[in-house]
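Replying to the earlier thread about multi-chain prediction with a worked example.

Input:
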Amino acid sequence: MTGRNRLSGPLDDVAGDAGHQHHPDRVGFFTDTSVCIGCKACEVACKEWNAVPEDGLDLLGMSFDNTGMLGADSWRHVAFVEQARPLGHQQSGLAGLPTGSTGTPLMGEAVQPRLRGAPRGGSELGTSPLPADNRNGNGNGSGTLGGPGPEDLGMPSFARPGDGTGAETRTEFRWLMASDVCKHCTHAGCLDVCPTGALFRTEFGTVVVQQDICNGCGYCVSGCPYGVIDRRQHDGRAQKCTLCYDRLRDGMEPACAKACPTESIQFGKLDELRERADARLAQLHELGVTEARLYGRDPNDGVGGDGAFFLLLDEPEVYGLPPDPVVPTRDAPAMWRRAGAAAAAFALAGVGAFVASTIGSAVGARR
Amino acid sequence: MGSNMAEAHPVGFQWVMEAKARGARLFHVDPRFTRTSALADAHVPLRAGSDLAFLGGVINYILSNELDFRDYVVAYTNAPHLLREDFRDTEDLDGLFSGYDPDTATYDPATWHYDGADPTDTSTGRQSRVEAKLHARGDTHGAGGPTLAGVAGDIASDPTLQHPRCVYQVLKRHFARYTPEMVEEVCGTPREQFLEVCRAWTANSGRERTTALVYSVGWTQHSVGAQYIRAGSIIQLLLGNIGRPGGGILALRGHASIQGSTDIPTLFNLLPGYLAMPSAAAHPDLASYLKSVCGHNQKGFWCHADTYLVSLLKEYWGEVATRDNDFCYDYLPRINGDHGTYRTVLDMIDGKVFGYFLIGQNPAVGSAHGRLQRLGMANLDWLVVRDLAMIESASFWQDAPEIETGEIVPEKCRTEVFFFPAASHVEKDGSFTQTQRMLQWRDKAVEPSGDQRSELWFFYHLGRRLRERLAGSTDDRDRPLLDLAWDYEVHGDEPSALDVLKHINGHDLVSGRLLDGYLDLKSDGTTSSGCWIYSGVYAGEVNQAARRTPRHDKDGVAPDWGWAWPYNRRILYNRASADPSGRPWSARKALVWWDPERAEWTGHDVPDFERDKPPSYQPPPDAWGPQALRGDDPFIMQADGKGWLFAPRGLVDGPLPTHYEPHESPVRNPLYTQQGSPVRTVYGRRRDSPSNPSPPEAHSDVFPYVLTASRLTEHHTAGAMSRSLPYLAELQPELTVEVSPELAAERGLTHLGWAHVITSRSAVEARVMVTDRMAPLYIQGRTLHQIWMPYHWGSRGLVTGDSFNDLVGLALDSNVFIQESKVATCDIQPGRRPRGPALLDYVAGYRDRAGVTPETGTRVDTVTGSDHTHTSTEPNEAP
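Result:
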């Protein structure tokens, strides 16, 4: 491998590149969201196995999603997206009913004020409780929904442009569910920027944080183009999915994949998963689900392909995923060459609609 | 239908997804768009409580287009049988069958019988009809149902299915008005969507293909729930989907091993193996009991009930049970009517019940009419609660909602509560019996901590202590307890679950060996078995339930994984998978078949038929019982060996399913003058069990919306096992109420705001979810809204909230005493509910506006003009 490829682009032997010799095949997840039933068994199994703490007993109101997003205390997150549009040839049952216009914008409006910018470069569903006046119930909660800094981030989006506007009758509906997780990137921004070596590439090609080494500097948080890695509030150390490194070493599959009843989360050798995903995509296209697409499958994308990739049924933004994630270190060599001022160059670049924020604003207000 | 499988049975749903991946089409017929709908090919909406009109519409579609699997129907169902001339259908009597007595709101089923069959077991007269209501319930007779005499020989039949009195033609007439237009009017299902279900169901059934039907408690918890399942059975029989691979009716149970707890029942009216609990009036001795299971000249394996019951008595009372004392038959308790949970709760309120055991049950949250449950429990001498966590049913005396209203005062509550922490399923050995009737053994993984103990420990030592306390007693009433063979193997102080399983399997008492199956049971007292259908779980001295050989690709049956009763048969009545001559209907759907060379039944599954009885077998003229089953009678437990399109016995509410409106409905029944089930069980008590008015009663508009409820994946039933766990509580932290955007606009509800739902019982508050998953329906010319809530919340745990079941009243299916908790009427208003005594005033205001009296909802007969009101009576009390 060339030096250029070590920071971006395709990389065939990611573990070898990290110095592992005689290592096993690279493994990962293929999450086929078209068969996800939204049971959240993955979230629970992950927390049980990895002793991740409960992180808030708050109703978010975003369909059945009360987790909000990935974070230090949520290493799996199932998104629920209600949309006034069809899924392939699926019949929603709405045709012919005395319906008015779609209510998903109402849901979006109610949830929107509780969305706020995540300090680590993503967006976050508000996880603070509803304002006290509303809880105490003067009327129906139509009062102001306070919360920290309402900010229209435009995502996760419930409706697509044109949906529910002007239509007298809603006839289409679909309910998408998807379990998100750390992508275990080929070029992992978190790992590349970690100054202590707490983050490392395992022999399986996955990316793991060692809590006993992490000093809580938070560079990794802004280094992740997906907004996945996060610092735990009480000790400040970085946390994220380990792809159950301990289980892998004992020859077991990760807890979430083990618990998934419908094989939406498939664990295996990455090469095999990619083949399986390609076949599934072709099958869905054949069945008329033309909106199906793979996300993170392409080794030529901004992170060199994901170790955990997805089959989605809509644009990534709809699920709260960045459309064109790029490892921040990809452009670092060029920047160094051009500007010669390396330290300033870690600002996020080219992340499209994804909301960037600066390292300095990291607050970690998540509860 | 009636099942939200992806949410309530997510692990089992993997197989549905696998079938879908192989090309199966998945239809989800449900009032709301759920996580099951999200994965289905089509979601088909309908009004909660209108399923029978939908299913009747499917039957009408099949019959009027002659799409039934005719060879199967003629050979294996009672379609050709002729009915008595004096049978009258609901089409003739405007919603009633012949035999209805408006004074008692009961049926005399005498006329619901085959022509020329022996009607010896019928009776007339008022008292006997009351007896009929109390004693002739299908469930009270065990799974065999009442006797059906005179059907072993030839029954008058017309194999061409043309005779106007043959079951096929009667069925056709009965459902003729269940047209797609009528389905649309009753259910709100647009006719094109309904027709698509009909087309898909019929096209995917027959010789080469089969369709499976799944239901859950969304069907059972209705005043006509048993008839929903009957209607599903009729469709599956007409299409040849019973006893065949890929077909069937899959009844998904509500909890782990609920199948097991009906097999070895916790129900007042059953003994193990679906034998009836003896009735004081009808079964004075063993002979009369056995006569009531198998009548004169009747077919089938229920006629061996003598071997099942005597072996059970031998298991209970061991050597004390002898032929001379009827094997201690007199030691069995007797029932004399309705001793169901709701009757018992009313008796608790009335001061007639003194003690109560709650084992893994939380009625304060999980049973209908929660306030009634709590008030009942607050009026006991003692209450024993065994559960994994401190539950509302143990703490009601200090934190029930009635504390706030002043109806329960902790200092004055007389009930002494004993709470016993229970060991969980990973902390004890035992077996689960799942919905396929499969037993799967599990070993203890960890020791229970602290005072937690297994159920086995509790009951074994309770029995031991009671027997010690009574030792030396000369009182005859103590003999049943003192004579029990309470002789289980004990390790330390823990009884051996394996030893209990062996006792259930049964022994040959002469050789001491374990039995290989129920065919080895004897009626002479030389065998024992705790549950005849489970006999064989220890066949060959091996715990068959502990086997773990996965399925092989070639057969898919997985016969060596666990053990399914009876005899490890995975598909019941699988003789029907072969044609009358014993050959599979098609190579694609082969399951079992007759091997002429070896002269036996064989196949992928264990044949559910006498192994060496050839397809050509004709019984001798005087045969009865199993011997009377012909070689092409696949339904070997039925009195006539046939699948019943028409049920001549066993149901108290009619031989055919009929659309009746729910007990609480916003609309008039458009099919008949008879509005609701004419025999449903109601309790007219204004103070503690009122009903909302339904047409033809006035003021039903006070409660204009349809209310339904179900589960969330994230929680388990009454919540004790999930609200107390942080990883589950955080996933669904608050009680919500789902409404459509249209209803939200109509009532001024906002997403995430508060609203409260009101019935004549109570008002319950919840956070609003405005969602496209709910949609209004167009019913009888007007828009009708439905409201949904989950029922998992209560006053304890990490997340708390009002209990949905406080909204539900008492109206029961008289066949099985299951409450109608899947549908009611209600109002919804924005904001939180009043608190304290103001809540009582608020609900009383609704009752007054709706004109609710103790009589509301109790005029169950709306045809004959009878003004009788019906309040279900307690046992032995004259109506």
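The first strand of chain B starts at residue 27 and ends at 29.

Feel free to reuse this layout for your own posts.
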